Amino acid sequence: MAIHFENIKEHIGSRVSWDDRSDLFAPEAAKAIREKVAERTVLVFPELNLTDEEQLAITNAIGPKMRLTNTTNVQSNDEDVYQVTLDEKINPQPEYVLGTFFWHMDGITVDMPPPFATLLSCRIAPDKGGETEFASTYAAYAGLPEDEKQALEGLKAVHSVRASLSPIADAIPEKHRERVLGIGLVKEHPLVWTHDDGRKSMVIGTTADHIVGMDIPAGRAMLMRLQEWAAQPAYSLRHKWKKGDFVIWDNTGAMHRAIPYDKSTGRMMHRTSIAGAEAVAA
């Protein structure tokens, strides 16, 4: 097996290359990829051109896989492959995708551990817009001054889908707006997630509505500052998609968002998810 990793930025991202494409499907590759995802947050496999079957094979090997979204826009050959698109013929409720224009983490409002990783294949790349940005909340937390780290310890934020979709609530058809905004659970999570290995990241993004025990304006201002801190160039990465690109990122230690694009571009991504092994813990 010969897989190579080249750092993209100091604190986030590695570009993956291989001597033989089959190396990526070798049993030992899954362990190497999973460890590198945890270390570097985002892995980019340029123009790998995976089929759904191959993407599921990699997902299962690193896995186990999980189904994050129960919806109609899934591939007919496997319901665990979710089609990320604004095409209403495929996705009858595009507001879920519109919500991805804002910083978020996957699976924060469901009653299970958040997914360890998200895997995305580009099937149609837009000419304009549609890039995906990633921000490492591991690196962002590590870079905070010590007094700010101490100030965050013990704080909890309230997360909901309603909060995450509030920027685009007016774009949701009124006839089913309340139903869409009310999906998922309202969850309290610590701002600082202490992982089983002792590393710490932040649980932030647009699902975070307010901070428990803090005045609403002050709490929301703190949450916004933390987003801005994590999104600074030192801790973030923007990926310009080409058809066939494949990206894996550590969902437990990163926010992500899509740069807005028009539905006429036909942008299409195929997403799979790897189950998380640990709940958010203080």
UniProtKB/TrEMBL annotation:
InterPro entries tied to this protein: TauD-like_sf, TauD/TfdA-like, TfdA_dioxygenase
GO MF entries: 2-oxoglutarate-dependent dioxygenase activity; metal ion binding
Pfam families: TauD
Record keyword Metal-binding present: yes
Cited Gene3D superfamilies: Clavaminate synthase-like (3.60.130.10)
Domain called TauD/TfdA-like: residue spans: 7-272
Keywords: Dioxygenase, Iron, Metal-binding, Oxidoreductase
UniProt record similarity statement: Belongs to the TfdA dioxygenase family.
Protein name in the entry: Taurine catabolism dioxygenase TauD
Source organism of the structure: Novosphingobium malaysiense
High-level lineage: Bacteria, Pseudomonadati, Pseudomonadota, Alphaproteobacteria, Sphingomonadales
